[in-house]
């Protein structure tokens, strides 16, 4: 769709949370299983995605660039959600929240397990992270983590 050739790296599993520098779009997943999906990429790749999606040249991150990455994340995470529904039942998908900055971290409440797939291309790198757990387990972890 965007004409960007990407190569997937080896998927990683572990606890949800990731350090970032660049642009990140996060979408919530709800249902009997819940969590989040996020797409993060370097600034150069975010600019290239926006330029190709919106057919205009972008050299700095602005609202259009953030909107473009949100749309691409919505497509990616939406497709993952549709695939997961075959096994996990109906799920809801929130609107994307997009973040841009130098040095920040994202974490998922309850810290469920995640799968992270890195991608590389000439324009930069991108990761797709899905963190999901049965909602009953997530609620229990959240309650146990609260101090009395």
How would you characterize the overall build of this protein?
With 148 residues, this protein is of the alpha+beta class. The chain has one domain (7-145): CheC-like (Chemotaxis protein chec, 3-Layer(aba) Sandwich). It is 33% helix and 42% strand. The chain has 3 helices and 8 strands. Strands 1, 2, 3, 4, 5, 6, 7 and 8 form an 8-stranded antiparallel β-sheet that branches. A hairpin with a 2-residue loop joins strand 7 and strand 8 (124-134). Helix 1 packs across helix 2. The relative contact order is 0.29.
The main pleated sheet reads as: 8 strands, antiparallel
Average pLDDT confidence is 83
Task: Give the overall shape.
Answer: globular
Radius of gyration: 16 Å
What share of the residues lie within helices? 25-40%
Share in β-strands? 35-45%
* Low-confidence blocks of residues: none
Tally of DSSP helical segments: 3
| CATH architecture type | 3-Layer(aba) Sandwich
State the distance separating the first and last CA atoms.
Answer: 51 Å
Number of domains: 1
Give the helices and strands as they follow along the chain: EEEEHHEEEEH
So what's the CATH class?
Alpha Beta
């Amino acid at each position: 769709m965007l004409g960007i050739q990407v190569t997937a790296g080896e998927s990683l599993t572990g606890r949800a949370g990731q350090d970032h520098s660049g642009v990140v779009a996060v979408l919530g997943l709800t249902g009997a299983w819940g969590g989040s999906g996020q797409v993060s990429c370097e600034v150069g790749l975010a600019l290239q995605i926006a330029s190709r999606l919106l057919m205009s040249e972008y050299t700095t991150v602005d609202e259009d660039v953030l909107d473009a990455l949100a749309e691409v994340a919505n497509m990616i995470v939406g497709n993952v959600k549709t695939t997961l529904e075959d096994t996990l039942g109906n799920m809801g998908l929130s609107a994307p929240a997009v973040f841009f900055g130098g040095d920040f971290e994202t974490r998922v409440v309850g810290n469920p397990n995640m799968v992270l797939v890195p991608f590389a291309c000439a324009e930069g790198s991108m990761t797709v992270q899905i963190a999901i757990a049965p909602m009953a387990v997530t609620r229990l972890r959240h309650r146990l983590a609260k101090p009395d």
